[in-house]
Write a structure and sequence with these properties.
Elements (H helix, E strand, L loop, with lengths): L27 E14 L5 E9 L6 E2 L2 H11 L11 E11 L2 E8 L9 H12 L5 H12 L3 H13 L2
Antiparallel strand pairs: 1-2, 1-4, 2-3, 4-5
Length: 164
């Protein structure tokens, strides 16, 4: 029988998710509801601005650092935070060097939870529609995916879905 252990940090009222929030080190899959800059009060009482992600699920929000933002941008092929809303992310704990020591930190897995990246999904859709497209449109779609023109993904997806 596995015994559940309680991290000491869970005994304090922290306002944001931390590595201690993950049960027995298991990953957590959450859906982004809102992202915005907020004032954060550090453990030393110092106020500073931070970029905060709120979730659809009943979980504390998470402070997103640049590393985690870059991962979300990569897996969903867009740097625009408005396009991250409604997307799922998989959070895990990792040991990182920070503040002169090694500490546990939350990180986002570099793939869409349980699925393919947006460009992979687009490529799959393209393959089902390719035979119904003109050669010119095929080349344009292939160029967009190859060159990772993320701004064009949504438009291409809509065009592909409209092909009967």
């Amino acid at each position: 029988m596995t015994q559940t252990k309680t991290h000491w940090k869970k005994q304090h009222n922290y306002n944001f998710l931390g590595a201690y929030s993950l049960e027995n080190g298991k990953d957590m899959v959450l859906t982004i509801q809102e992202l915005k800059p907020e004032e954060i009060i550090g453990t030393n009482g110092k106020k500073e601005k931070g970029f905060v992600c709120h979730f659809v699920e009943n979980q504390k929000p998470m402070i997103l650092n640049k590393t985690n933002c870059k991962i979300i941008e990569k897996i969903y092929s867009t740097p625009f935070i408005e396009e991250w809303v409604g997307k799922k992310i998989q959070i895990f704990s990792s040991q990182v060097a920070a503040f002169g020591t090694t500490t546990d930190a939350l990180r986002i897995r570099p793939q869409i939870p349980g699925g393919k990246s947006e460009v992979q999904q687009l490529a799959d859709l393209y393959l089902t529609k390719k035979g119904k497209m003109t050669v010119s449109n095929q080349r344009n779609a292939e160029r967009i995916m190859k060159e990772k023109e993320t701004e064009s993904y949504q438009k291409l997806k809509i065009e592909l879905e409209a092909i009967n």
